[in-house]
Every structure is written in C-alpha cells, then in structure tokens.
Amino acid sequence: MSTAAFSAEELAAGEALFSRGWRFVKSVPDLQFLPSADRAEIALAGRSNVGKSSLINALVRQRGLARTSNTPGRTQELNFFEAPGVALFLVDMPGYGFAEAPKANVEAWTRLVRDYLRGRPNLLRVLLLVDCRHGLKDADRTMMKLLDEAAVSYQAVLTKADKIKPPRLAAMVAETEAELAAHAAAFARVLATSSQGGSGIPELKAELALLAAGHGVLPGASASP
Ligand code: GDP
Q: I want to staple 126 with a disulfide (CB 3.0 to 4.6 A). Which of 3, 27, 154, 219 is the partner?
C-alpha cells in the first residue's frame, strides 16, 4: 500500500492545524450566501453514509461539530467551518448517491455543487471520501466528472478502514489509485482512514497541513497554542 510516510514535524503540523478550536460558521443552501473567498478552502465530499461527518469530527476532535445530516428530503447545503488564527475554511459538501432521492433534489444538488466547484478560486482541494468496503461507485464517478470539468484538484480518502482486513484495504487503495490515475485533476495518493479507530487520521491531518502550508494558512510557526 502506498501509505504516505510523514516526518514527525509534518505530523505535528497536522495536529497543530486541527487542534485550534474549529467551529461552525454557516450553512449555505445557495451560492449567494457563500462567505467571501478571503482564505484557502478544503472541502469534503462523498456518498451519504460514507462517514464524512465522522471524519470531520475525528479531524477536529469534536464529536458533534459536523452533524449526520443528509437525508433524502433534506435541503442540500454546504457547511463551513473555521478556526481562530487559521486562514482556512473546511467545507462539508452535501452527500450524494441516494437511489431513492427525488429528481428535483438531485438536480438541486448538481447545480449547487457544480456552481460551487466552478466559482471558488480559493478551493485548494476536495477530499473524495470512499467507503473502503465498496470502492468507487457510479455516484462517485459523477462527482469526479464534475471535479474534472471544474479542474478542481481532488484526493480520494478511504473511510472505515477498521471494517476490513489490511490486505483487502491495501488492495482497495491500489484499485482506487489505479482508477484515479486516469484523471488529470486527481491526486495520485489515496489515504486510508478510520474515524473510529483513528488510523490514518494523523496522516490525513499532516497531508492537509502540508497543502495548507504552501498557501499561508498558518501565521509563522506550526506549534500548537
Ligand atoms: P455521513 O453521512 O457521510 O456524514 O456519514 P456518518 O459520519 O454519519 O457515518 C455513517 C455511519 O458510518 C455511522 O453509523 C457511523 O458511525 C459509521 N462510521 C463512520 N466512520 C466510521 C469508521 O471509521 N468506522 C466504522 N466502523 N464506522 C464508521
């Protein structure tokens, strides 16, 4: 498995970035309500039930920050989070892939997500969450098409890694990396995470801190306050 090796310094920078008291900013059901693009932004996307809320909560070490929310009839929203002293928004994108979702909801989701991806110059990367038991599904491929068309960089993150044995997880990482290799906007490395067991979370934090570091997200030193 191409598990990324991070230095102790990079892991510490990841911890520092995510231990800064992240808080909810606002829900955006329509792009006219977007906060101004005055800082970098990293968004998380994935099929409903993929473990997106759990992953956000694991990253920021707060149980209830991101709510388990996406039910078929519910209004689709982008949820924004910020932390003091960090010039970065984390964005929880509306989940997708409900087979039974009404057509109007799918259309509203597509419009919101497509317009957001196209019109957000400060968006550094989208994390495409994929359940490690299932791998990429057609709903993910629809999302990948939107990302490719908007030329937004994205990286797959496998979730629920505690649910399968290491050899199967390694195979799923390899399979996912192989499919993503054909997509120009996709990041080559796939990370495997478990919000429940914690595996891969420090590495994901380090990966995002590395990404953020190049964009002036943290002022000066990376030490935790
Ligand atoms: P969301 O709809 O993508 O926000 O998904 P949630 O975070 O609400 O998670 C969906 C379900 O998967 C919940 O029952 C979670 O408890 C479970 N889940 C999420 N992450 C993990 C994980 O890392 N390991 C295990 N075993 N279950 C998880």
A: 154
- pLDDT per residue rounded down to tens, the chain (225 residues): 445 689 999 999 999 999 999 999 999 999 999 999 999 999 999 999 999 999 999 999 877 787 755 444 455 899 999 999 999 999 999 999 877 778 888 899 999 999 999 999 999 999 999 999 999 999 999 999 999 999 999 999 999 999 999 999 999 999 999 999 999 899 999 999 999 999 999 999 999 999 999 887 876 544 444
Q: Select from 47, 49, 53, 54 the residue to mutate for testing ligand 1; criterion: most ligand atoms less than 8 Å from CB.
A: 54
Give the tokens for residue 85. 């002293």
Closest ligand 1 atom to residue 161 Cα is: 23
**Does domain 3-127+135-145+200-214 bear CATH number 3.90.1170.50?**
no
Give all strands (DSSP E) within 62-199, no chain letters. Answer: 78-83, 86-92, 123-131, 154-159, 191-192
Binding site membership of 50 for ligand 1 (Cβ less than 6 Å): yes
**Cα–Cα distance measured from residue 179 to residue 145, given in angstroms and rounded to the nearest whole number:** 13
pTM: 0.93
What is the helix (H) or strand (E) element at residue 61, kind and residue range?
A: none
Is the minimum distance from the CB of 160 to ligand 1 under 6 angstroms?
yes
Rounded to the nearest angstrom, the distance between the alpha carbon of 182 and the centre of ligand 1 is: 29
Compute the distance from residue 117 Cα to the ligand 1 centre, in Å: 25
What is the rounded distance in angstroms from the CA atom of residue 40 to the CA atom of residue 27? 18
